[in-house]
Amino acid sequence: MSKAAPRPIDRKGEAAPRPIDRHMFAGFLRQHRAAAVAVTGWSLLEAVPALASGLLVAAALDRGFLAGRPAEGFFWIGLLGAAMVFRALMTRTLTPWLGRLVEPLRDDLVTAVAAGAVHRAAAGARGTAGAGVARLTVQVETVRALVSALLRSARQLGVSLVMAFVGLAALSAPVAALTLPPVLLTLLLCAPRLRVLARRQRRQLRAEEALTAAAGEAFEGIRDIVACGARDRVAGDLSARITEHRDACRAVSRTASANTLLVSLGSHLPLLVLLLAAPRLLDRGALSVGELLGATSYLVSGVAPALRSLVAVLSSWGVQLATVLRRLSRSTPTTAHGTPGRSGRSGTSGPDRPARTPRSPDLSLVDVGYAYGPGAVPVIDGLSLDIPAGSHLTVVGPSGAGKSTLTTLLAGMARPDSGRLTLGGVPAAAVDRAWLHRAVTLIPQEAYVFTGTVRDNLRYLHPEARDADLLASATAVGARALVDRLGGLDAPIGLDGPPLSSGERQLVALTRAHASQASIVLLDEACCHLDPAAEERAERAFAERGTTLVVVAHRISSALRAPRVLVLDGDRTAVGTHGQLLDESPLYADLVGHWVAAGTS
């Protein structure tokens, strides 16, 4: 399997998502130039019958049947049949080359959409998971299917149309000069109408989505609607949505019908021009009977059906492809520097708020609040807390108290709804993202191990780390025995290696964080699958490293080791030492009692 091309790096050192636009497709074609050239070449060979059909028909008549040589006439007709067989062979040869364009394009789209989703999530965007899944599945697969269909059909029809006119010009230049203008005029008139059709189809899709959403809400709340006497108002709203959708559908139908009529007239007009000019051309000797029949063959079996089918395909698949790509392009918005653009609270610092580098890894929260939605109860409400550089804080609280949410805020993966969060005196929204990604490491409960070698995994956050540093970090957090058992730094892990237990995966993640250059480490129950002794060793390794350490506790022992403990639970939030909190916080005393009773101390 070939390695993917490296992603572009923006001025802040971050891999930027590639926008889905014409530049992406231009770059894609340059990257897959060999396949694109092969498709072009085989397409020209595939169009040999379209090029030669009229010439062979004219030769069969003028040199064969009309000249009293039927054998020669059958010879030229036989060549036409051979050309059809040749076309079938070329189509068969061409098909794998189409796959070499379509499948990598699908992979590039998946990469672009996934990168955009990750960048938006890293910038604090909310509510994007469902849309991201839809883009990665339905919409990307739709693009793949449409591009495949267009490459098979529109490509063939377009090349056949061009080759038919080349053959017509070779057969009779005067006929080509008479019949080409109506075809060009038809194409010029259809091009702007395709854009109109695309706009109206987008309007239809929006109206359909609005109708579906309104109807779903009405059906789900039908009892409340009846109980509140709101039937007429809801019915009126649904009626308006239905009317809007009906009007949008009619507009699409009118535009499509007008396009069909225009193309039908345009495809028959060249033949009408030829029939009107034929008597004069025959009388002047500018056209033979065989050439007249050959030109008619070009127009009837080549130009007219190719023109109708080409416009029909572009009006359906082409417009649908443009609509889906427009929707996908919104998933990878970029600024002038290639980083995701601002969108409400989920954007980067933006041109009106230049990125700043904090002076130190101090963390400070002043009256911070955060909720998962506009109408939701805040998970964190009015939290004020200082975490000096190099300090060690353990966070405890009942399930759902906001412990993981706090680590997400501290990591810069979400922005507070209210209050002020600063890093080294710099507001979180203005912190340079590249600095943030280097300085802060969050290890969640579910540890990630990537397919590759042990070395690849351990220096993922610090690519320049030496082997000695990696082994020293593994020894510090208690993972050296695991590295040796796996076979050393060159040993494969992930999908290519032996299965790892949850605890072993956490040891890999802890070593990776310890070997990084992070000055702030957030452990969100990152040692929950380790035994108490291993957990203590890992936490002490980070504390002795001089790292600002925030630990979401899984055992009471984590709170006993920390100089300060944060009890997080809405308005019962408290900060202090273990002894102080036992006396001052009933919630903390209850938690300690629960831990001790459960035997986890």
What structural keywords apply?
four-stranded antiparallel beta sheet, six-stranded mixed beta sheet, alpha/beta, 601 residues, 20 helices, disordered N terminus, single chain
Structural description of this entry:
A six-stranded mixed sheet has the order 6-9-10-3-11-12, sandwiched between helices. It has a four-stranded antiparallel sheet with strand order 2-1-4-5, covered by helices on one side. The protein has helices at residues 22-31, 33-46, 48-65, 70-122, 129-152, 154-171, 173-220, 222-227, 231-283, 289-329, 403-410, 433-439, 454-458, 467-477, 480-486, 502-515, 532-544, 556-561, 578-584, 586-598, and strands spanning 363-370, 380-387, 392-396, 418-423, 426-427, 440-443, 452-453, 492-493, 520-524, 548-552, 564-567, 574-576. A hairpin with a 6-residue loop joins strand 11 and strand 12. The chain is elongated. 63% of the residues lie in helices and 9% in strands. It has 601 residues and is of the alpha/beta class.
> Biggest sheet, strands in spatial order?
6-9-10-3-11-12
In whole angstroms, the N-to-C terminal distance is: 49 Å
Radius of gyration: 34 Å
Regions with little confidence, pLDDT below 50 for 5+ residues:
1-18, 126-134, 333-352
Round the mean pLDDT to the nearest integer and report it: 80
Percent of sequence in beta strands:
5-15%
Structural class: alpha/beta
- The 3D shape can be described as elongated
Number of helices: 20
**Largest sheet geometry:** 6 strands, mixed
Total strand segments: 12
Helix content class: 55-70%
